[in-house]
Every structure is written in structure tokens, then in C-alpha cells.
Amino acid sequence: MNPICVTCGMQYGSPRPDCPICEDERQYVPPAGQQWTDFATLQAEHEPLIRPEGEGVTGIACTPKFGIGQRALLVETEGGNFLWDLSAYLDEAIIADIRTRGGITGIAISHPHYYTTCVEWARALDVPVHLHENDRQWVGRPDERIELWSGRTKQVGDDLTLINLGVHFAGGTVLHWSGGERGRGALLSGDIVQVIPDRKFVAFMYSYPNLIPERPPVVRRAAEILAGYRFEAIYGAWWDAVVRQDGYDVVQRSAKRYLDFVS
Fold it and tell me: What count of other Cβ atoms lies within 10 Å of the Cβ of residue 192?
């Protein structure tokens, strides 16, 4: 059995008493203690949830929500479809839906909290999973489908670029889709760049549940890197967490506000 942590959704290659992801200060072990489930039980207790999140962007998760509650995003591009971030749940209905859209060329994940059942997804869809090598220590279930990449950027499609910002985790990554939003560009950010209720801003945190702010030099560097890209929309980690317009300005304004507050 490959156990799955109930709190964060990480799947491990063999039974263990602890979940390193949850014991890290960016996550938490709940007061009731460590709890486990497995893939078959997850499928029996949940149903797929698939719906549009934007033009050419489809959200994929389950109901009721599981673990942290994020959803995957299927990006449909002229050069091939791509899957960004993952939820733990996967079944034949989701696989069939992805295949009817032309399948995918690969999967990339923003940070370890969303690695979850990535091996199940990669095997079912016969594609690689791109993870940044700075977070290799957090891989819970090693597999030949996992491909580690290094450096600041990696091209994963004609108009799809992975960008390592180092926010939240050392390997914290966003996906820039230059052809998104009818050529105005889109940034798929997970919670590396966190979409918040006030859509005029985004947030940068080291730990969200434990309210630990990100280090100022890391935020400054991330803003400088993203200054080289243009994007209208920002797709965050959860349902409807989307900045629909002026995404570039939102990021730069938010980084300045953050750095002004902590200076």
C-alpha cells in the first residue's frame, strides 16, 4: 500500500509513522495526530469535480474536498495540453476527460504540498512530472516518471515556461503561459504567488497555515524575475482564485507593498 496523508495529501512509497511534509513548519500535524488513507479509499469516498476556470484552463479536483483542497489546472495550448499542479484524487472519468481533449504532454507542480499522488497521474496519463531539483528531498514516492530540472527556467511547451522563484520552498515554481488570455499572457502560480480575496493584490508567504511571512530578499528576487514576463491573469491554487486582469501590475504592486511594510 502507498499511504496518503489525510492532512496534506502526500503519497508515500511505503507505510511510515510520520509525514515529513506535515511536520515541516510550513504545514502542520493536526491535534488528532497523523492519519492515513489510500488511493482506493480516496476514490470510494469522493467524486470528480471538473469545470472551467478560464479560457483554455480547466480545473480538476474532487468533491468533497480532500487534504489542502487545491485543484489541478489543465492548460490547452496549440502546441499541446499541459497539466499544472495536482489534487490527490484521480479516477477513470478524469483520465477520459483529459484524453478527449487530446491528452497532455506533461505535468509540472509548483511545490511539495501539491506533489501528492503525482506518480498515479503520471502513470495513468503516460507523461513525465517536472519537479525542481531544489525540492528533491520532499519527493514522497520516487519513480522513473519524475524528472528533476535545475536552474531558473525550463521550457515545457512552445509558449509554456516554468520559472523557479524560490518563494515558499526553494524549488517554488510558477508556470508562465505567454499565449494565454488571447496572447496577453497568464501566470499559473499555485500559492507561490498567492491569489487573495482582494484581487488588487497577491501575497507571498513562507507558511500560510502558520502565518510565517516570506523573507524579504526572496520576495524582492521573485518580483525582479517576474518583471521580465507579461501576463494579464493569475491563476492561484484554489477554485475561483483568479486575478482576471492587470496581473503583472498586481504582482509588482504587491511586492512593493510587502517590502515597504517589512522594511
Answer: 28
Cell of 2: 502507498
Give the pLDDT score at 67.
97
CA distance 86 to 127: 14
CA atoms within 13 A on the CB side of 56: 19
C-alpha cell at 219: 520576495
Cell of 47: 467524486
What domains can be seen in the chain, in order of their start residue?
4-262 (3.60.15.10)
- Cell numbers standing for residue 97: 476527460
Q: Residue 87 corresponds to which cell in the numbers above? A: 489534487
Distance between CA atoms of residues 251 and 174, nearest Å = 13
pTM over 0.90: yes
Side chain identity at residue 132, one-letter code? H
Answer yes or no: is pLDDT of 255 > 90: yes
Cβ atoms within 10 A of the Cβ of 214, count?
Answer: 21
